[in-house]
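hey m, so remember when u said the tokens were messed up on ur end? i reran from scratch. heres the input so u can diff it against urs
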Amino acid sequence: MPMLLIEGTYKVLHASPDGDSVRFYPNDPDQWDLLRGRQVRRNRTGGAQLRLDGIDTLETHYRPPHGPELHQPPPFAQKAGEELLTWLGFREVTRNRQGIVTEAVPPEVPGYILTRSADKYGRCVALAGRGAAPGASGSHITVDVALLKQTANHHQLTQGLAYPTFYRMLYVDLRKEMTKAVTTARSTGKGLWPKDETESGAKLNGLAPLTDSSVMMPKLFRRLADYFVLNDGDPSPAGFPDYLAQRDDRLFILSNGQSTGFDTVVEVTNGSTVRLNHPPEDLVFEEG
């Protein structure tokens, strides 16, 4: 399937990359303008933040509207960020207490991205590759499963450090391969999967267990964080499905062909246990 190929470099100094997001600087910044649809938000030197397509790693710094900065359990959130930078080619990465990179060797590494568009925040939604590009920069090339396997997106899934989080524009054959990678990582107990509570259920009593101990799909975490902050200290998640219904995040359930809302795949039992009633890879979200 055709995607725009752009060559450039990854840079991390003075930034706070995590397991599914990093800054990318095209060799030719004008090539951003070759994208159709939403435009990429870039800085004065052409650099832009990437959102790695098809995956979501645990949050290291998420700020709900009108709330404090929050994170998911640090061991897996930090490991995903470390793994991405190591895979790209960075060594000796030092961060300050705020998670901002103060030192990295080398300071930048060459690579390429494969993309179709930006998200609503102006981040480039991309597959991230390292080293030499598989074609001419600025051209549209066919992206198959073999090429997907050469990307950071696929790597993070194979290591069990990312949740599959699919959106409608992701090609079907690539989504199926990502699902295969997730299934293998889960069945072999890699990374976060032995601790995952997305389907088994996380017992929550306010924000503390959500940030300190409950390992779950980041999209579910973000909605729960928003909900708890909005409720002014009420620790009960009992009203969470109603809150989701108001937000009306739309999705498609692959296993039964149903177009529905996020609220229909979330359950709250015994007033405190929150779970998805479908595995994350069975859901395809509509881009907001």
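this time it looks ok to me. The CA atoms of residues 62 and 205 lie 19 Å apart. if urs says something different then somethings off w ur setup not the seq
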